[in-house]
Design goal:
The structure is a homodimer. By secondary structure, chain A is an alpha+beta fold. Chain A folds into 2 domains: about 290 residues, 3-Layer(aba) Sandwich (Aminopeptidase); about 120 residues, Alpha-Beta Plaits. Helix content of chain A is about 35%, strand content about 25%. Chain A is built from 12 helices and 18 strands. In chain A, strands 3, 4, 5, 6, 7, 8, 16, 17 and 18 form a 9-stranded mixed β-sheet that branches. In chain A, strands 9, 11, 12, 14 and 15 form a 5-stranded antiparallel β-sheet that branches. The longest helix of chain A is centred in the C-terminal third of the chain and has 21 residues. Chain A is elongated, with a radius of gyration of 23 Å. The two termini of chain A are about 15 Å apart. Chains A and B meet through strand 10, helix 8, strand 11, strand 13 and strand 14 of A and strand 10, helix 8, strand 11, strand 13 and strand 14 of B.
């Protein structure tokens, strides 16, 4: 017996996305801004709670202010959870995390109205602060048990406002955040739908990406120290040009990735500051960021070693000193092969073109994968644009993604 | 008959340099700061006027506030002029332009006290604003007739203070600046002594550099435009990384100079700004300075063409747009071969090791060369340091330089 082909209510979904996209829209930021626990975010949460009630689903807000819609919840059986986040960066588009929340809600509504039999309850959750006002993925960290009293009480935003105060101002109690923790036994699976935020699906005209891993990364702050000299009086052979070192490293990135990385490896020099930074002075100091991502922890280790060697050799060759600081390290996360298989089967059964791929960006799924069997699916991002009002996904791809999530959730829960 | 071997009064010279080096010394700037027409500069000028009077030399302040010491001046015969500038950058050392002014004064004093016969009068001048508060080389531009009423009345410093107001506050009248202009007939020759501000003499243990040309330059502001994309989700092959373009150009500098430049060519990328400039975003825009110098105008033209081609090819190859703006262009200046020959003869006769070289930095001589036969000599800068409190020249080299200037001036004037 093949599973039934379920379809979301496309009109209702579109209506909800349209409504939500008006919330937190800011002239100043040229796009949407629903920073976690801001006015825009609270309005988004209120809207979501109302839609849950309107749908006759159970509303549950946990101690970390994650908002859950629940179907057939009985507190006994493990649930199949889906979800993403409603908060946004400044100048955001209308999809990003919001899409996964609204589609999750629609899936629960659809399964409810079709009165489909469920072996496991379903939950559609909007996680708190995915984007990072207080460090990012706060809600999914709370659920997966990664928060400690220390992290909660030390968390501050860029303006010095504490998480404790921000939660209190919104009627939440940060003391409860630890209680949002879920046991592995309380969950059967987790699946997140998200826009790709990259160009791969769009360029290959593929409507669905089945995520098999989420890239980890290391991010370094590197300083190269040479001598600041007069650009007119210092012959080329007598320079210790710190910028020359950064430029040479940039040129070596392709070689390093080819030699020690995988086709999934990326490396980026996104920030460069030169000192003194004047047209007529040979740069005596260069500070830059190096961020490297891959889905394989061993590959990341090899790449870190290769970059260390390259920087060291460049510095030696050019008479520069160097020092670097590890700004962050994130371990790659594998999605559950079982969940990947279910999503792949769904796309095959629905006759939908799909590709297995990595997520280069971080997502709440990364946290949830430590707690339960987790998987993710992507819909295309036009030109790979994200975190921008130019973010866009064709409606037919959104619909396709929603139908794939609906069928996946139903297969997992039935 | 060989010319007599003249020697400066080393003790008197040292005493004067020490006295002057206490003027404009600033704790805040960690060094000397005698910005043109500032309190420090005015104190330096007052000290210089006093030394001129003490020496029994004639004092003359022209309309551009250039301060002249004159010996045997009769307003009829053309003069042999030497000089440099007393103003400084912030955090300067005690030599730079001050050395050439004080040594010039000492040469006049010495020739006067030895009662040497002179065919031509001598002048030692301190030029106004060489360093650029109001654009740079204001005094030598005035003398060489390059100022116009428009440039005078439009000149403003970085704080918006006009040259007119700054001169008035110091008791000068900007209207007189045009009257500082000298006729070619009023000058027989000009020679400037300056520290090298580069490492060439110091590294080769050569006490004297005989300058045969002052480099010209072009300075561009270049913008490369790509796409700002998520550093995690954008595969390496789908990037239009603007920084990659700057880095590639930096790597091509040696090739371009070798192919289209001379051993005297230098090219510097001293300023780079990336947008948005975040570790996790592929740079969508890079703005940078490119400054290229050479002593040959044709070479500069070839280099400009080569850099244009290189930037254009890099942009094409990487899917970037580019635009550039010419920030400044300075034509190279040749020193007078006759003056170069006299200085070379002096060093040979005194048994002093000297090397013919270019000046990579700009100097008042550049302006004076448009008016009269002009030449320049350098003394070593320890480690090439300049515009820094670390600027230093061994005393024996200063003495050597002073003696070479003294003998040169006397040969030119006798």
């Amino acid at each position: 017996m093949t599973a039934p082909e379920l379809r979301v209510d496309s009109e209702r979904l579109q209506h909800d996305l349209d409504e939500l996209s008006a919330i937190g829209r800011s002239e100043r930021d040229h796009g949407i801004y629903r920073m976690a626990l801001s006015e825009g975010d609270m309005a988004g949460r209120a809207w979501f709670r109302q839609r849950i009630s309107d749908a006759g689903l159970e509303l549950y807000v946990d101690g970390a202010a994650n908002t859950h819609a629940r179907l057939a919840w009985d507190g006994e059986r493990p649930s199949v959870m889906t979800g993403s986040h409603l908060d946004s960066v400044p100048g955001a588009g209308h999809l990003d995390g919001a899409l996964g929340v609204v589609v999750g809600l629609e899936c629960l509504r659809r399964i409810q109205e079709l009165q489909l039999p469920l072996r496991y309850p379903l939950e559609a959750v909007a996680f708190t602060d995915e984007e990072g006002r207080f460090g990012g993925m706060v809600g999914s960290q709370a659920i997966s048990g990664r928060l400690t009293p220390e992290t909660i009480f030390n968390a501050r935003d860029l303006n010095g406002i504490t998480l404790v105060d921000a939660m209190q101002a919104c009627g939440y109690n940060a003391n409860d955040a630890l209680r949002a923790r879920r046991t592995p036994e309380s969950l059967h699976a987790f699946v997140e739908l998200h826009i790709e935020q990259g160009p791969i699906l769009d360029r290959s005209h593929t409507p669905i990406g089945v995520v098999d891993a989420i890239a980890g990364l290391f991010k370094w702050d590197v300083r190269l120290l040479g001598s600041a000299n007069h650009a007119g009086t210092t012959p080329m052979t007598m320079r210790n040009d710190a910028f020359g070192g950064v430029a040479e490293l940039s040129g070596e990135i392709p070689r390093i990735l080819e030699e020690d990385g995988s086709p999934r490896s990326v490396a980026t020099i996104g920030r460069v500051q030169l000192f003194p930074g004047a047209a007529n002075v040979v740069p005596g100091k260069a500070e830059f960021s190096l961020e490297v991502r891959d889905t394989d922890p061993l590959m990341l280790e090899r790449l870190a070693e290769a970059f260390r060697k390259a920087i060291s050799a460049i510095a030696r060759r050019r008479g520069l000193m160097f020092e670097f600081e590890v700004l962050s390290e994130l371990t790659p996360v594998k999605c559950d092969p079982g969940i990947v298989g279910v999503i792949e089967n769904v796309t095959r059964d629905l006759g939908i073109n799909a590709t297995v791929m990595a997520s280069g960006a971080a997502h709440d799924t990364q946290m949830m994968a430590g707690l339960t069997r987790a998987g993710m699916l992507f819909v295309p991002s036009k030109d790979g644009r994200s975190h921008s009002p130019a973010e866009w996904t064709p409606w037919e791809d959104i619909e396709t993604g929603a139908n794939v999530l609906l069928n996946t959730l139903y297969r997992l829960a039935s």
